Amino acid sequence: MPSPSPPQLDGEALSVVQADRAGNVSAPVGLLAPDTTAPDAPTATISGDGSIATGTGAPGATVSVTNAAGIVIGTAIVAEDRSYTAALSPAQANGERLGVTQADAAGNVSVSTGVTAPDITAPAAPVAMLDASGSVVMGTGEPGATLTVRDAFGTPLGTAIVTAQGDYSVTLATPQIDRQTLSVSQADAAGNPSPATTLTAADLTAPAAPLATVAPDGLTLTGTGEAGATVTVRDPLGRVVGQAVVQGDGTYTVPLDPAQTNGEVLGVDQRDVAGNGSPIVTAIAPDLVADTTPDAPSAAVDPDGAAVAGTANASAAIIVYDAVGTIIGTGVAGPDGSYRVALVPARIDGETVRVTQTDADGDVSPPATAVAPDLTAPAVPTATLDVTGSVITGTGEPGATITIRAADTTSLGTAIVGANGAYAVTLTPAQTDGQTLAATQADAAGNVSTPIVLVAPDYTAPPARRHDRTGRQHGDGDRRAGCDRDDPSRCRHPGHRAGGRGWQLHRAAEPCAGQW
Questions:
Q1: Which of 30-34, 47-51, 464-468, 500-504 has the highest mean pLDDT?
Q2: Predicted TM-score (pTM) of this structure
Q3: Does domain 300-371 have CATH number 3.40.50.1820?
Q4: Which CATH number is 211-284 given?
Q5: Counting beta carbons within 10 angstroms of the beta carbon of residue 367, is it exposed (0 to 12), middle (13 to 18) or buried (19 or more)?
Q6: Cis before residue 511, ω within 30 degrees of 0?
Q7: For residues 389 and 432, is the Cβ–Cβ distance under 8 A?
Q8: I need a surface site. Which of 5, 55, 319, 333 has the fewest CB within 10 A?
Q9: Where are the extended beta strands (E) located within 346-499?
């Protein structure tokens, strides 16, 4: 049987005749060739609203549109003019990747044409929280979106790109610590903005010092302050002698118990409803007592914190108090006026110590104030590394300096612990390769805490693995790793014994380059 040349595989119409030896030709017989040839890939375009796919194909072919999961979301028959229109259900309007094929009447399917749907869909509002220091906004969003934090006036305070894992952190240009309202939104790669997530900053701002005056009879103290704040009055030894809440009009009256009538210097402060304390202001009580008050003695705490010493009137009784007016030691000045009172336990953490002297008539001096040495390291801070590897937040000793160091002791960032004990450190660079980090805090005296150790997330792909002809290089890792000379199909790396070679062996995915 003769074979057609070239082969006919696309449904071609053929005719067959036969001729005898005399050259007589029969009438033709018609037949069709089989159709096993797939049509060309169709052209495809998605409409601006994502509801239809249009393009060109082979007349009579069936066009199918599939989503990334391979599910058919639209079909159409190609018209005689080679055009088609396929309605998509559901509409594709979020940058989806689609595939478009056509199948002819014989069921042959073309190669797929890839096409991207328009992105006109706004992302959801991001998840957002403000850290306790008011310095960092962190949360989750749409990978690749641009996250923006704005103040109540719409002014941007910081931006970040959401990571491939869907996380972000934004270090604010100005910490938000006074109940400010913030909005957090994200815009995808097509520029579609999300609804905003609203945050309210914590109140970490201390009120101003109150105004304070002691009444002429020493029974009350009055003044002005922040509405709702609590005013506290302390005597010269630090003991609380009265409290009151500031009224809505900003005024307050504090009853004093006991009455302050001997010219005492009182300390007055206010603490707002969020717990922020103001600076201390002094108020002087009237002097209504007919006595001769001795002067305050001199006082200094020994360098080791074990005693307080100074000079007073000869034979005066010495009383030592802590910062809140509790007696912690007593003594008597010598004939030359010198005294030394042991402190048990020793004061070695910057404590305030107050000392008074009492003369033979029982008259008590104002206190002298001395500060103990600070030889005590602060406690280990708390520390948490956010999932982006770019910010560490935690708590420490107010006023201490937090330092984050890499394994080689390089500093990656520092911060001062706020009055509320919170801090945030932005790392430079971000740590995303499983690095080991250490966080310490140092107080004002330079005492450094024990470190807390953190491990960074690992989002970094390992380097490509290489095999050279010498068997001395395996990827970008250990220089001793490579292909086993006795069997080039086996890779090896040090660390475990195998076959007496001191190597861990495994089969290479492909032969080592250059081996023979």
A1: 47-51
A2: 0.76
A3: no
A4: 2.60.40.10
A5: buried
A6: no
A7: yes
A8: 5
A9: 352-358, 368-371, 384-385, 391-395, 401-405, 411-416, 422-426, 436-442, 452-455, 482-484, 487-494
